């Protein structure tokens, strides 16, 4: 590189780094993050921010955990890599540990990301049905507004037009139904009845699409990235019954909800269901290293146990299950258990939600909802019509929070005309003072933006 003068970090960033989502930004718009401690991150200019999103909903144990750095370093010194055609102690121990946290017996397939884990789930579902003598089942039903990943299959399952429309055609065989959105339900039905109706939309789709062609339903316990859209508990249970009735596998995407985000080890445990396949990533390592798991229930796995070539699951992922990431995941879960972070998520989450509920007095706050340390604030133009607030209003709230040292998220789908939900997902290790700070900043920001 020919450089006559030394470029600043920011200049180099603008020159060489293609950022996710928005590649070109105005000067000064990109935060160059230098370090983190607990729930707080510090940028290169020494400004501190409370990370109310735990990065991308993932740093569950908070930043700066030396134990996790040591777990990774020790493992790399011992054996840095072996492919998962072999095995190694951290992968074995982690698989047993994760199994002990689930409600049934599962076998763990390792990859690197949430998208990977969902791709594996779709491939296993399709092959499982073939192995069971049911080769025509290939379609996957998911929900509008949900996000399941960025790779072609996971993007096909995603129900947000904004993320998809430039990359079509995507994989075939992916169908969508609308999720229950209790805030916008019709007035003349109860929440339970409305949720049952929404679940039955899945059964209708199964019937109209020719029953024997459906391989799986994929859903999150609650839609996180699409705007914290929470079902009533009857919904998941009804979907489980429908899947059972039609021989369709139920895949639960726990990429965000898993590892304590909702106040239980896994989000689906809120609803007492037993998924056939469970995908997990983010909180598994608190994002200290990349790792994901596709947990497959033992009886589904049995169909792949034959020794014939055509019975093998033909899927290899070079870095999946790498020893350092598995060692970090084990230590991460140990920390969560030692510090009772799932219970903490439940308790602090209740405190956060109670405080946020007071914002519902504001003329633009249509609805506040949440579970554990996961919350959504739906911003509307008009509380009667529930018309979603336009981009500027929502963007201004986020910028005002940032100016006061609080990072919050935003979700929705601009193509669908609904990108109006502020989101919060702070580390499970947050202190009471951290939660007070979040509430104080939000109160100030909403008071200043009436
Ligand atoms: N599923 C859900 C529910 C997610 O939120 C995400 C990521 N935000 C993914 C899958 C994809 O995960 P990754 O970015 O690790 O591929």
TrEMBL record:
It comes from the Bacteria. Signal peptide: none annotated. The keyword Glycosyltransferase does not apply. Keywords: Aminotransferase, Pyridoxal phosphate, Transferase. PANTHER family: AMINOTRANSFERASE, AMINOTRANSFERASE CLASS-III. Belongs to the class-III pyridoxal-phosphate-dependent aminotransferase family. This is Aminotransferase YhxA. The lineage of its organism: Bacteria, Bacillati, Bacillota, Bacilli, Bacillales.
């Amino acid at each position: 590189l020919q450089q006559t003068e030394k470029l600043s970090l920011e200049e180099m960033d603008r020159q060489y780094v293609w950022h996710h989502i928005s590649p070109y930004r105005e000067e000064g718009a990109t935060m160059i993050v230098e370090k983190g401690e607990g729930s707080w991150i510090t940028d290169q200019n020494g400004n501190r921010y409370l990370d109310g999103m735990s990065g991308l909903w993932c740093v569950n144990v908070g930043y700066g955990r030396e134990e996790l750095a040591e777990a990774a370093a020790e493992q790399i010194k011992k054996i840095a890599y072996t492919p998962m055609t072999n095995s190694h102690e951290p992968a074995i121990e982690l698989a047993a540990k994760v199994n002990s946290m689930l409600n049934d017996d599962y076998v763990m397939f390792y990859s690197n990301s949430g998208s990977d884990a969902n791709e594996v789930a779709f491939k296993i579902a399709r092959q499982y049905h073939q192995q069971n003598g049911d080769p025509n089942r290939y379609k996957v039903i998911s929900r509008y507004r949900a996000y399941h990943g960025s790779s072609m299959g996971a993007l096909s399952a995603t129900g947000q037009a904004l993320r998809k429309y430039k990359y079509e055609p995507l994989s075939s065989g992916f169908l969508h139904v609308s999720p229950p959105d209790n805030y916008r339900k019709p007035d003349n039905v109860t929440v339970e009845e409305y949720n049952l109706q929404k679940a039955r939309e899945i059964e209708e789709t199964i019937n109209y699409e020719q029953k024997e062609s459906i391989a799986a339903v994929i859903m999150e316990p609650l839609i996180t990235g699409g705007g914290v859209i929470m079902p009533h508990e009857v919904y998941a249970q009804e979907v489980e019954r429908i899947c059972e009735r039609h021989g369709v596998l139920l895949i639960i995407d726990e990429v965000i909800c898993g590892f304590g985000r909702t106040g239980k080890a896994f989000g689906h445990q809120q609803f007492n269901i037993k998924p056939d396949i469970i995908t997990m990533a983010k909180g598994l390592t608190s994002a200290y290293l990349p790792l994901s798991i596709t947990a497959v229930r033992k009886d589904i796995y049995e169909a792949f146990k034959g020794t014939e070539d055509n019975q093998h699951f033909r899927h290899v992922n070079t870095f999946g299950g790498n020893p350092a990431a598995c060692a970090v995941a084990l230590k991460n879960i140990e920390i969560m258990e030692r510090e009772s972070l799932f219970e903490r998520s439940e308790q602090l989450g209740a405190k956060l939600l109670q405080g946020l509920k007071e914002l519902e007095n504001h003329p633009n706050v249509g609805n506040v909802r949440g579970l554990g340390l996961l919350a959504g604030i739906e911003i509307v133009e008009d509380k009667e019509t529930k018309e979603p607030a336009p981009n500027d209003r929502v963007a201004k709230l986020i910028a005002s929070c940032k100016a006061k040292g609080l990072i919050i998220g935003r979700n929705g789908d601009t193509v669908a005309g609904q990108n109006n939900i502020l989101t919060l997902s702070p580390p499970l290790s947050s202190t009471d003072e951290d939660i007070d700070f979040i509430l104080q900043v939000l109160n100030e920001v909403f008071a200043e933006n009436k």
